[in-house]
Design a protein that fits this description.
The chain is an alpha/beta fold and 283 residues long. It contains nine helices and ten strands. The protein has a single domain, classed as P-loop containing nucleotide triphosphate hydrolases (Rossmann fold, 3-Layer(aba) Sandwich). Magnesium ion binds next to helix 1 and helix 9.
Length: 283
């Protein structure tokens, strides 16, 4: 069964002559327990696809359904709750809060949802990414690969039905990348996690069950059981057909979204700091 389904999803930004069509009637399903890689040139709509599928952006046309529920019919507050309970999101730049330890960062989604973080769930999420022994470390005391694993643990702590990852290995060296990809693969194989991952790297895409290629906001093809060399050949063909990447504005869109997540998390961190200050004062 498809846990996430996009039907003729379009997303345009701007108006008049400045209109950009980021997604153009995309119809796609993501089966429960499957690992999908999304690839395509810069500006082809990969991040927009992920954000629409995750309910972070509302499409301009078409429908997204999550576990059979049509997201466009939900009120914002209901959508936010469904997203918190159903979706995990991992960014290329980790987005950890530097003042918080690994375990506090991992507990953040539970705090954002208004719950007291459950220590057992936090420890289980850190163990799942091999970082049980780094719980008290702050991001600056962790390597890039370890920070990304903390971000994955944070995305997993609320047991999401779908994990979306936008270039999760984009900032990592090849050894750390392999490690992160092996963790993602084992989440699918051992727990039946559904994962949708954007990547530019054919080696990363080869860890998935299927690759979806985007070009100019449309699905230009899919590849089952991909291997790195076949993926690379598809990409080369796509890039020669689309010589005008639109990366700069794409980066702006991602920066805006990340800014929003950081602002929300900063607000919670400020609350945590105040609480910690209060505890210190009462000692
Ligand atoms: N917030 C926004 N406002 C205006 N245009 C946007 C916005 N976000 C994305 N776009 C445009 O939509 C198109 C698709 O952007 P998207 O970020 O989805 O691309 P991408 O495939 O993820 O690219 P990259 O590989 O560079 O991350 C781009 O042309 C981009 O300029
Ligand atoms: Mg992107």
């Amino acid at each position: 069964m498809d846990i996430v389904r996009l039907t003729a999803v379009s997303k345009t930004y701007g108006t008049g002559s400045g209109t950009v069509t980021a997604l153009d009637k995309v119809t796609l399903g993501f089966a429960e327990g499957s690992f999908t890689a999304v690839m395509g040139a810069s500006g082809s709509g990969k991040s927009t696809l992920l954000q629409c599928a995750a309910g972070l952006e509302r499409p301009t046309g078409g429908a997204v359904s999550l576990e059979g529920k049509d997201l466009s019919r939900l009120r914002e507050s209901v959508l936010t709750r469904l997203r918190r309970e159903t979706i995990g999101f991992v960014f290329q730049s980790y987005n950890l809060l530097p003042a918080l330890t690994a375990e506090q960062n991992v507990g953040m989604p539970l705090r954002l949802a208004g719950h007291r973080p459950d220590g057992r769930a936090v420890r289980a999420a850190l163990s799942a990414v091999g970082l049980a022994d780094r719980a008290r470390h702050r991001p600056a005391e962790l390597s890039g690969g370890q920070q990304q694993r903390v971000a994955i643990a944070r995305a997993l702590v609320a047991a999401p039905r779908v994990l979306f990852a936008d270039e999760p290995t984009g900032a990592l060296d090849s050894a750390s990348s392999r490690n992160v990809l092996a963790i993602l693969r084992s989440l699918v194989d051992d727990r039946g996690q559904t994962i949708v991952m954007v990547t530019h790297d054919p080696v990363a895409a080869a860890h998935a069950d299927r690759v979806v290629f985007l070009a100019d906001g449309r699905v230009s093809g899919t590849l089952d059981n991909p291997d790195a060399s076949t993926v690379a050949a598809h990409l080369t063909a796509l890039e020669s057909a689309d010589p005008a990447p639109r990366g700069e504005a794409a980066l702006r869109g991602e920066a805006a979204l990340q800014g929003e997540v950081t602002r929300r998390a900063d607000a919670v961190a400020a609350g945590l700091d105040a609480a910690a200050g209060g505890e210190a004062a009462s000692c």
